[in-house]
Amino acid sequence: MGDLATATILAALVLIAAVVAVEFGVSVAIIEITLGVVAANLFGIVSTPWIDFVGSFAGIVLTFLAGAEVDPALLRREWKPAVLIGGLSFLLPFIGVGLFAHYVAGWSVPQSEIAGIALSTTSLAVVYAVLVETGLTASELGKILMAATFVTDLGTALALSVLFIQPTWYLALFIAVSVLVIVIMAGLQRPFFARYGARVIEPEIKGAFFALFLLMWTADLARSHAVLPAFLLGLSVADVFRRHPEEQSRFRVVCFAFLTPIFFLKGGLNVDLKYLATGAGLLGLFLAVKIVTKFAGVLPAALRYVRPHAVFTTLLMSTGLTFGTISSIYGLNAGIIDQQQFTVLLGAVIGSAVIPTVIAQRWFAPPIHPLTTAEVEAIEDEEFEPPRGHLR
Question: Would you give the DSSP letter of residue 371?
């Protein structure tokens, strides 16, 4: 199938996903993943180099936007719940899934480590997409959730690096470039916006895209990934988005209209139902172990710090996609796990992106209060921000 035919089919799926999401009140990310599975297994749509490229970039842009949503002042003030929730969200699943893979599934130690890493993650992309759709990104709950997700994925990235990635000069280059990009972007944001901001040609978005591509390029040279520096880059320019909400709105339009759908569809395209049929039981057990250990780690801390929304928080922290997929692909490419093990892990990763999200949105989502006329007008002017400390 040609690229244009594939693009046309994917565009139709993106439109269908948007309509279904609105009609049934389910996150569009979940619908896009599901339609990706259907497209791959019923209609033979396969991921192409351009889909892989756009999908990879979309994941980095989503991570950057998620970092930009975190309030640095709130993060400093609420560092304890973020570190506790995020740290336990990584540690218990990493240990629990690793032990299950080794002692129950009979996998080797390196294979079990890959399984533990892949299923210890929380998906920044899924969490951010859900928070945007439910209007919680500006709330204190939303900011704590994104900060905790970052802590979880930091643990995942560090575990993958310490256990498997070999230090090279390219890795040193990647770290140096990441630091320089973050420092330069943070230092230039005010004068750059003063000189080039509020123009139809969008120099700000182009500058951010250049920085993200640079991070991706050097990460690829180092056989690493740019997710963490992308999040830190977003965090470093978060103040600019608060001062220029219209810029954030335009950035979201670019991301959610084109980039994000490709990212989630690509996740679904990677699922082969033939492999899943032979490993469905093991997949279900892996998924169950992940969710049980997530609840064991996150729920007690969530009950202490975000009690009205503890279950909602725990369910979102149980999602996985980006880092879980990255870790699984790394294990496959490095020859640590085979194709069958890869499919089982990837299926569990995608299952964790779908099932907890649906449950969280349908039955545990925080109620959103009806807006007053003044608030509606303020939102239309892109100036409204909910009061600090209000967990809605």
Answer: P
Q: To which residue do tokens 């880059």 refer?
A: 233
Identify which has the larger pLDDT, 337 or 264. 337
What are 106-161's pLDDT values in tens digits? 999 999 999 999 999 998 778 888 888 778 877 889 889 988 988 898 888 888 87
Q: What distances in angstroms separate CA 136 from CA 70, 265, 389, one per listed residue?
A: 12, 24, 12
Q: List pLDDT tens digits, range 241-254.
A: 777 777 777 888 88
- Of 230, 184, 200, the closest CA to residue 65 belongs to 230
Residue 47 Ramachandran class (φ > 0 left, ψ -120 to 50 alpha, else beta): beta
Q: Which residue has the higher pLDDT, 339 or 390?
A: 339
The C-alpha angle with vertex 378 and arms to 374 and 384, in degrees rounded to 5, equals 115
Distance CA 112, CA 179 (A): 32
Helix ranges (H only) for the chain are: 3-24, 28-42, 49-69, 72-77, 79-103, 109-118, 124-134, 140-163, 169-196, 203-221, 227-236, 238-243, 245-254, 260-269, 273-278, 280-305, 310-317, 322-333, 339-359, 373-380
Q: Which amino acid is at 320?
A: G
Q: Please state, in angstroms and rounded to a whole number, the distance separating the CA atoms of residues 113 and 95.
A: 9
DSSP state letter for 306: S
Distance CA 318, CA 291 (A): 6
- d(CA 279, CA 210) in angstroms, rounded, equals 42
Q: Tell me which CATH code domain 49-264+273-380 carries.
A: 1.20.1530.20
Distance linking the first and last C-alpha atoms of the chain: 47
Scanning the structure block, which residue is given the tokens 């503890």? 310
